[in-house]
Amino acid sequence: MSVATGRLDLDVLVVGAGMVGAAAACLMARAGFSVGVVESCAPEPFDGAGPWGLRVSAFSPGSQDILTETGAWRQVEAQRHCAYRRMIVEDRDESVVLEFNAPEFGLERLGTLVENDLVQWSLWQSLLAAGGVELACPDAVDTLALEAGGPHVGLHSGRQIRC
Questions:
Q1: Is the pLDDT of residue 161 over 70?
Q2: Integer angstrom CA distances of residue 83 from 30, 32, 89, 97, 108
Q3: N or C: which end of the chain has fewer CB within 10 A?
Q4: Residue 146: strand, helix, or coil
Q5: Phi and psi of 148, rounded to 5°?
Q6: Across the chain, what does the average pLDDT equal?
Q7: What whole-number distance in Å separates Cα of residue 39 and Cα of residue 149?
């Protein structure tokens, strides 16, 4: 917090803590940047005993490595997920069909299917645990102005951030 201005000074401000925004914020904080995250509402806690979510993502080993670096993958591993060894991709009229099989690439699996709600909740937990992250939630951006020292963001809550 800048004493002279009452404004929070950060290296980076991420607006929206969806899967991409939350992962980016975690990685930048781990790299030593001071990071702010503005999000309208925190994700609901993931309930592994509840019904399976209909929205899932297929995480390649490389994407899994990114989630491991954010600290979120250990949360995912502790819940439900499913490895996949084969994937078939078709276009709308089925004239083009691509098939991928893990053994053809010398792999045990192509990746892992995970419910989006679990990934989102796990990334949120990583944000909460990360040092160097300022969370503004629930909040929203009201104003954005470019100043000599960088962007100046005014939040609905009245907080002022320069990043």
A1: yes
A2: 28, 33, 17, 22, 9
A3: N
A4: strand
A5: -60, -35
A6: 93
A7: 24
Q: Map tokens 């019904």 to a residue.
A: 51
Alpha carbon distance 13, 99 (integer Å): 40
> What is the phi/psi pair of residue 64, to 5°?
-60, -40
pLDDT of 6 above 70: no
CB 73 within 8 A of CB 62: no
- pLDDT (average), residues 21-41: 97
Please, which residues have CB within 8 angstroms of residue 101's CB and are 6 or more apart in sequence? 85, 86, 110
Geometric angle at alpha carbon 24, from 21 and 27, rounded to 5°: 150
Cis previous bond, 151, omega within 30? no
How far apart are alpha carbons 97 and 89 in whole angstroms? 6
